[in-house]
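Throughout our pipeline, every protein is held as a single compact record rather than as scattered files. Nothing more is needed to write down the fold, since each code stands for a local backbone conformation. For reference, a complete record is included directly beneath this paragraph.
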Amino acid sequence: MLRIATAARLRKLREAAGLSPAEAARHIHCTESKISRLECAKVPLKERDVLDLLELYGADPMERATATELVELSNRSGWWERYSSVVPDWFDKLIGLQEGASVIWTYELQLVPGLLQTAEYAFAVTKKGFPLHDRVDIEARVDLRIVRQEILSRDNGPRLWALIDSRILDRQFGSAHVMHRQIMHLIDLMDHPRITLQIVPEDFITVGTPVTLIRFPLDLPDVVYLENSLGASYLDRPKETEHFRALLDPLATTAYGPEQTRNMLTAAAERYR
């Protein structure tokens, strides 16, 4: 999040100064592609590069001092570093983005979203997804998932808008008791002031893959997260994020409202009782 904020600021200052990426690259003796990656927050920030660029762009001393602090903070390890043995590089970025998000808008086709899972449901899902891993590894993955959910209880935490395909309610993971507790947990979360939960009818599909769109405070670009069996993709170009926003909008308007969603969840919970 801090890297994205600093990178976006550098790009704005360069454009305001009327300088091209090539001119910025010459100033810090690097390639133009490095400037592009730096301004897209795709590489770690180096204090010397950032300060030299700010000097070129005419930034005042206060801004340079602030940038120095942000660079140092952006390069610190996150709390999830202790789970490094079970966190692949492509997922590490998602945790960091969600930590700094103001809104997380997610659509799930196969599973209850990770931020809304109970520990028992998460264990059943993880065990099925990693059948060759031992219990210690699976429990570490589940623990990470539960700790990630703490962002929803923070005073300054993000708003979560979750769209869930209705067939998820009929897809059993673990025992009937596990499913009952998971669905009751979803019902309880509907009363959370920053969580919006909607069930999407099974015959309304405009997106064939799970999608998470993350929005941030300040003037920072949206990021779309797409996960697949081999890893994940992160999209932040306006045309890309607007494309997925245009796909999610119809889902949100067609999905069941709060009362009908609650009724569907209650009926599903009864089936597993």
Q: What stands out?
A: The radius of gyration is 21 Å. The mean pLDDT is 89.
